[in-house]
Write a structure and sequence with these properties.
mainly alpha
Length: about 140
């Protein structure tokens, strides 16, 4: 039961990294480093909802697969985050699927998505590990 709770908390916290990154990298939408706190908070909330959806669609099945056949550690969490980030980039630029424009848009979107995915995966691992450590110390 502790593993399920720790994983759930990790899945709820990890998208906050992507939501905040979205807000800080969107000056055209009113975000960016020079934006007001309310603009950053609003865009972060919007980004969180989107990231939570992508986490459920791509991250949860990947987590269940890794947990079944391997172990959940920092490397598998960051690697899973990178894979989810790439999948999200592919979905977001899928307007012209499998054309040269799609490929160039994917290449443009990939660095941000990969880094954001890696940071989200690391946040997932950190929160999950801290929750498991706290639960085991309370026994």
């Amino acid at each position: 039961m502790q593993d399920k709770l720790a994983s759930t908390v990790g899945f709820l916290v990890a998208p906050a990294v992507a939501g905040t990154a979205f807000a800080l990298s969107s000056p055209a939408l009113g975000g960016g480093l020079s934006a007001s706190f309310s603009s950053i908070a609003g865009l972060s909330a919007l980004g969180y909802v989107w990231a939570l959806g992508f986490t459920g669609i791509f991250g949860l099945p990947l987590f269940l697969l890794v947990r079944r056949y391997w172990s959940i550690n920092l490397f598998s969490s960051v690697g899973g985050g990178v894979m989810v980030g790439l999948a999200v980039a592919a979905v977001l630029v899928s307007g012209e699927f499998f054309t040269t424009r799609w490929l160039s848009a994917l290449v443009e979107a990939s660095p941000f998505s990969l880094v954001t995915g890696a940071l989200s995966g690391a946040a997932f691992w950190l929160v999950r590990t801290l929750c498991l450590t706290k639960a085991s110390s309370e026994l």
